[in-house]
Amino acid sequence: EVKARLRPFGFFFEKSLTDLIKGIRAHKDVESQLKFLQNAINECRSEVKSSDMDVKTMAVLKLSYLEMYGFDMSWANFHVLEVMSSSKFQQKRVGYLAASQCFRNDEDVLMLTTNLLKKDLNSNKSVETGVAISGISNVVTRELAADVVDDLIKMLNHSKPYIRKKAVLAMYKIFLKYPEALRTHLNRITDKLDDDDESVVTATVTVICELSKKTPKILVNLAPLFYQLLQNSNNNWMLIRILKLFSSLTAVEPRLKHKLLNPVLELMSKTKASSLVFECVNCLVMGDMIDETDYEVARLCLEELVEFFQQNDSNLRYVGLLAFLKIGKINPKFIASYSEYILQFIEDEDVTIREKSLGIVQGVVDDENCFTVVKKLMLQLVPEESSTSNENDSFPKLFAKKTVLSEHYKHEIVYKILEISSMDNYTNIPSFEWYLAVISDLIDLSIVNNLQTGDQLGEQLRDIAVRVPSVRKEVVGTAIKIINNKDVLGKLPAALKYTIWLAGEYSEYIKNGDIFIQTILSNESRLELAPYDLLELYIPALVKIYSNYVNKDPTYWDLDKSDNISSLTNRLINFFEKLSNSKHFEVQERSVEFLEFFKVILEAIEQHDLNASEPPLLLTDALPSLFNAWELNPISLGSQQKLADPDFDLDTPINEEIFEQYLKSDDDDTDLEEFEEELYEDLGYVEHEEQKNEQERNPVVDELKKKEREERLKDDPYYLSSDN
Predict the structure, then answer these.
(1) 556: burial class by Cβ within 10 Å (0-12, 13-18, 19+)?
(2) What is each CA distance from 475 to 500, 507, 510, 673, in whole angstroms?
(3) The pLDDT value given to residue 8
(4) Would the pLDDT of 684 be above 80?
(5) Nearest by Cα to 235 from 281, 257, 260, 204
(6) What is the arithmetic mean of pLDDT over 518-535?
(7) Is residue 36 part of a domain?
(8) Do 287 and 259 touch, CB atoms closer than 8 A?
(9) In terms of Cα–Cα distance, which of 374, 380, 368 is closest to 406?
(10) Which of 110, 300, 350, 657 has the fewest CB atoms within 10 Å around its CB?
(11) Could you say which of 102, 125, 150 is where a domain stops?
(12) For 182-190, what is the mean pLDDT?
């Protein structure tokens, strides 16, 4: 009571919103701040029950602020409703603010709010009407929309443009929640396109533009009206919305494309506003007004976008690049003459611009600039040098900080290098030797940057080896270099699946096969821990390399060669023996097969005549025949689909007797379940189950069940007991 009597004299004892914010900032650590916030919530709980509307309003305002910290204020919904009904506008506005935060899912409160909203909508004070319209747009539900739509429609004819504008915008939310209103009141909205106030017209265009994204068909009839606005309006914002509207309408009415093309191009050439130029280009692209042969229209658009690229504002460069990318997707030849800008973008300081430029770089790459583009991209993968200092220097040597690149972007760089180098059957690369060096460097850079690009890089090596026989020797050399790199097994094992296959498939290009096998097996302990799918390929590859090595000179044999091959064979036998106990079936099967075969080879070498001039036939004839029957050749894309279907007769039964039995079982309506039961019975499973059930039966339980059944059936007139 004392506080209430002192309040008219300016003495306030409750904390204001300013005090709350200062208190939160004063408590730096998490624990003290959380305790302060909890105390503030408790204070608001008591203050919101006050009969003094000023205290209640301040409590609601503080709760609205605390709600942004994640505290629930739905418990105060009815107190918020009390503040909304205040006769003072400042308090009413606070109530509507809080309502927009906590009324959305409380249908009970919204039912009580309906009459208040209707009252405020029809208030003589425009500020109250305005805040009511804003509140409706924030908390509207289907039921509330049906109740207030008629009152809101009346506001479209309000004397003040401020109210008409807010009413038009609020009707969009009404249409979303209550689509039935769109059928009956759309014409009332379109009438506002002729409003005297430009802000009302702009709001109307905005609402119709947003509606066109959801239901464009019902708005096609308005195209002539918006066409006039497009030609006559000087409001850039309205023109932007109209262009967005036409982008949606052309999808359902293709005839608009020819009508709009010239006006949009004319508007694009006249305006100096960058935002409007971008929307003009976007309208032409999204409205399908540019096809693959419209070089002149594309040139006009690209020339406008070039001005975006010359700006210092990275936002303008980015949106210009977005439009550039859309035009390039229509026909890559459109942007071929603008390669200088794309090459600048792949080194832009803004990483988002770099990422977008990667999407169109393939459209400007040719045999003249491929080397430059690949170099620019690869340099971005080179890690930043660590700062070093000389002991005699007073200051450390500093390096300029490079732009921090995400792992995703680094992956995209590798993929893009492979794409632009291999497209059009490798027509852009200077030479295959250069490209093999690039792939080798990308392997090293992927290891340094922890990038999982082994599959893509290895597949590219395999593709070159299969399709270009003249460079197979160089490909195998690159593959051997990758296999001998000890870091690859631990950080990029996927690449080894392809390189070890290449080494085995084209092992005739390996000069010293014995040394290469010894090098691989020297890392045997780590190799045994490799992924199973990699070991599956290592086993046959080692055998192929061994086969080509021992048959380098099939007509020469002496004691030194015998000892060398015996030692190599023993080494492989030991390796296969360790893998023969593998948990993986494929690894175990392959290692066991070759283990037994190599034991036979070793026995043949040991029993071979030392004075013989030729190796054992098992080495020269049997072993090579396992792999050299057919050469793997490339085929063109789609060749598999051209093969004729084999002449299989799928209608004639393979076994007539079984087929007749099947038809007979069909005629007798023999059920599959009965067939299965008979089969299981023949196999003895049913008898086994019955024996098992008999063992598990409890005689006491069986007796009780029997008595219950007899009691249930004794009054049944259709049941004959055994006594009768």
Answers:
(1) exposed
(2) 12, 11, 11, 60
(3) 54
(4) no
(5) 204
(6) 85
(7) yes
(8) no
(9) 380
(10) 657
(11) 102
(12) 90
Cα angle for residues 634, 638, 643 (degrees, 5° grid): 90
Which amino acid, residue 571? R
Helix, strand and coil content of the chain, in percent to the nearest 5, comes to: 70, 0, 25
DSSP-based three-state secondary structure for 531: coil
Question: Which of 615, 636, 657 is the endpoint of a domain?
Answer: 636
Amino acid in position 144: L
Q: How many percent of the chain have pLDDT more than 90?
A: 41
DSSP state of 311: S
* Average pLDDT of span 469-487: 94
Instruction: Please choose, from the candidates 371, 373, 375, the residue with its C-alpha nearest in 3D space to the C-alpha of residue 345.
Output: 373
Q: Report the alpha-carbon distance of residue 315 to residue 309 in Å, rounded.
A: 10
- DSSP letter for 714, please: T
Between CA 677 and CA 675 the distance in angstroms is 5
Q: 374 with 420: CB under 8 angstroms?
A: yes
What would the mean pLDDT of 249-268 be, rounded to a whole number?
A: 89
Q: Is residue 417 part of a domain?
A: no
Distance CA 268, CA 272 (A): 8
pLDDT classification of 292: cutoffs 50, 70, 90: confident
Residues 589 and 535 both lie in one domain: yes
Cross-strand pairs, 397: 388
Q: Which of 483, 568, 571, 496 is CA-nearest to residue 532?
A: 496
- Distance, in Å, from the CA atom of 443 to the CA atom of 490, rounded to the nearest integer, reads 13
Q: Could you give the percent of the chain with pLDDT greater than 70?
A: 86
Q: How many CB atoms lie within 10 A of CB 85?
A: 17
pLDDT the model gives residue 200: 93
User: Partners of 388 in the beta sheet?
Assistant: 397
Asked whether residue 239 is domain-assigned, the answer is no
Same domain? 553 vs 604? yes
Tokens of 471: 């460079």
User: In angstroms, rounded to a whole number, what is the distance separating the alpha carbons of residues 333 and 325?
Assistant: 12
Q: How far is CA 651 from the centre of its chain?
A: 47
- Give CA–CA dist 46/33, Å, rounded: 20
pTM of the model: 0.68
CB half-sphere exposure, 698, CA atoms < 13 A? 4
Could you read off the pLDDT of 1-47 as tens digits, one per residue? Answer: 445 555 554 444 568 888 899 999 998 888 999 999 999 999 899 88
- 632/691 same-domain check: no
Q: How many domains does the chain have?
A: 3
Torsion angle of the four alpha carbons 473, 479, 484, 489, in this order, in degrees rounded to the nearest 10: -170
pLDDT band at 437 (very low <50, low <70, confident <90, very high): very high
Over residues 622-642, mean pLDDT = 76
Q: Are residues 628 and 680 in the same domain?
A: no
Mean pLDDT, the chain, whole residue set: 84
Residues 6+ away with beta carbon under 8 Å from 59: 14, 43, 44, 47, 48, 50, 79
Number of C-beta neighbours around residue 215 at 10 A = 14
628 and 521 belong to one structural domain: yes
Measured in whole angstroms, the distance separating CA 409 from the mean position of its chain's CA atoms is 14
Q: Are 201 and 192 in contact (CB under 8 A)?
A: yes
At 397, phi and psi to the nearest 5?
Answer: -80, 120
Q: How many CA atoms lie within 13 A of 173 on its CB side?
A: 18
Residue whose pair of structure tokens reads 């977008």 in the numeric block:
356
Do 580 and 591 contact (CB within 8 A), yes or no? yes
393, part of any domain: no
What residue spans of 213-273 are helical by DSSP H?
A: 223-232, 236-249, 256-270
Q: What CA–CA distance (Å, rounded) separates 121 from 247? A: 36
Range(s) of the domain holding residue 680: 667-716
Helix 513-522 vs helix 532-550: crossing angle, to nearest 10: 150
For the stretch 311-334, pLDDT in tens is 888 888 898 888 888 888 888 888
Q: Which two tokens stand for residue 51?
A: 């009969």
Cα 126 off chain centre by:
49
